[in-house]
Amino acid sequence: MPAPRLPGLPGASPAGAGRDPFFDNAKYLAIVLVALGHAWEPLTHTSRAALALYLTVYAFHMPAFILISGYFSRGFDLSPAKVKRLVTGVVVPYLIFEVAYTFFQHRAEDAPPEPITLLNPWYLNWFLAALFVWRLTTPIWQNLRWAVPVSFAIAILAALSPEVGNDLDLQRVLQFLPFFVIGLHMEPHHFRLVQRRWLRIAAVPVFATAIAVAYWASPRMNSSWFYHNDSVQELAAPLWAAPVMQLAMFGCAAVLIVCFLAWVPRRTVWFTALGAGTLYGFLLHGFLIKLSRWWEWYDAYAWIREPVGGVVVTVLAAGMMTALCTPPVRRVFRFAVEPRMEWAFRKRP
């Protein structure tokens, strides 16, 4: 019997059968952190504390989500069923949201429409472009003897190569590649290892230290390193910074991912079911985040820049992402995020 499809990760099929609440919980919490990072960004211009929290979250939230995506891509091959899932769960949503984001910007800013460029992912669409490339290359990474070291070498070479360009956001695709490849090579027992009680306790001082280090480093470090979408030349850094920073950023991400996963509940809780809708929340929250920038919501009220404003923004962002992952929202937008498209594929005997 084929493994069930996980809607939160388009086209994904785990190696084993059944849904584990741990992974749905992890996906939901990771996607909430994505929303918090985007919502906090305007606050970082006037608050060093907000910037420290922002950098801490950016150090691991997308690497964690990508690693889990890799884990649930272990069963991907080029069989007709898997190719269909790749098309309906990644390619079609990419095309729909690329067009939707472009027209939304035109209406929201009341400006001439930007040209639709399918090779230059707009805002959040970079993840779908990356997932498409990673999934297509999955058979390669599963057959290479030293897949993880090779993926690191590719990430470092990409950081040294400004000519990689922006087509399909390839710079970011290659720099984040090691997290996906590591996920491909993980087994269920690896995740059980991080659920030990002593790790949950140790995660508290580790995260506290990470925030303190981020607070110290925030005025001294270019935050663009955390986005993984620029070469060292574009960051005006020396060539030796590519391997050093890639390995340092990976080390920080790895430690924080372990601590994050140690805190993830292992049992079914109130938000477990929302883990199946994380891609909906990811793609849809971009409209509200961009609207808040274009309509200058953060500048409308001075109190938003105060500590109480940061708390309000945090609660609203978490609530927004939670609502966007719910079953009613998924039913409304299933045509765009998970279209069935039976008519587009040949029927197999």
UniProtKB/TrEMBL annotation:
The keyword Transmembrane applies. Residues 21-323 form the Acyltransferase domain. It comes from the Bacteria. InterPro entries: Acyl_transf_3_dom, Nod_factor_acetyltransferase. The chain crosses the membrane at residues 51-73, 85-104, 116-134, 198-217, 237-262, 269-288, 308-326. Coiled coil: none annotated. The keyword Lipid metabolism does not apply. Keywords: Membrane, Transmembrane, Transmembrane helix. GO terms for molecular function: acyltransferase activity, transferring groups other than amino-acyl groups. This is Membrane protein. The lineage of its organism: Bacteria, Bacillati, Actinomycetota, Actinomycetes, Kitasatosporales.
